[in-house]
Task: inverse folding
């Protein structure tokens, strides 16, 4: 079955760089398949951050694109997100999710990893 | 960015009664490829979001038939025909027609 799991630090300091890894199973990043990162601050709505496609095309939320980098990991079943210059507003649960090329149809989500930014 | 506006933000419902959530977009979600990429997600307390409906009205496998989606252009609706206890949670609409993809603020469904 399809599963995704996010991993990374639970705590990062102000101005540090956050690196998160999404490890997935039950599918491959082959034709038509994509993985996105989405975050959700406590008590707020989700916010789409970045996406990587099977052919290595990458897309970023315009409001954050100068701080974000998405890439495939060293393993074929991993996607990595880095976010630079972390601040208090970046405190959130970060999810990765699978979807097809069009429409943001996130059909499988990870359980999320909570990240707190501290001074 | 396309702004997604949901109403109401809080929806107390009696068990067995219907519920309806409205979602309006600041631009038409009709995509040039002919599809309308409006999705609905349910987030139960302490859980990850779960997709219920994609492309306006397509119910996901395993989603009860009491959930239905409708709409076009800028106006969309999620309906629950008879609310059950397991439907408690926050419901989000999300558009995938324009970059960046954006979510509504969420509607919290609770039992009266």
Result:
């Amino acid at each position: 079955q399809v599963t995704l799991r996010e991993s990374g630090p639970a705590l990062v300091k102000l101005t540090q760089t956050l690196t998160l890894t999404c490890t997935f199973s039950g599918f491959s990043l082959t034709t038509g398949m994509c993985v996105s990162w989405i975050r959700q601050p406590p008590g707020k709505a989700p916010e789409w951050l970045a996406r990587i496609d099977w052919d290595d095309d990458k897309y970023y939320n315009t409001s954050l694109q100068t701080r974000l980098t998405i890439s495939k990991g060293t393993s074929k079943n991993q996607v990595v997100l880095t976010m630079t210059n972390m601040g208090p507003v970046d405190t959130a649960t970060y999810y990765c999710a699978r979807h097809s090329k069009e429409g943001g149809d996130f059909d499988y989500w990870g359980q999320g990893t909570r990240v707190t930014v501290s001074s | 960015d396309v702004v997604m506006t949901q109403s109401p933000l809080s929806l107390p419902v009696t068990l067995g009664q219907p519920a309806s959530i409205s979602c309006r977009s600041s631009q038409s979600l009709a995509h040039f490829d002919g599809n309308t990429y409006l999705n609905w997600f349910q987030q139960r307390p302490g859980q990850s979001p779960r997709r219920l409906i994609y492309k306006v009205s397509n119910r996901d496998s395993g989603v009860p038939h009491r959930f239905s989606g409708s709409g076009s252009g800028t106006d969309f609706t999620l309906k629950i025909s008879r609310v059950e206890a397991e439907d408690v949670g926050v419901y989000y609409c999300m558009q995938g027609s324009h970059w960046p993809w954006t979510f509504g603020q969420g509607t919290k469904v609770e039992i009266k």
Notes: Residues 37 and 96 of chain B are 5 Å apart (CA to CA). The mean pLDDT of chain B is 97.
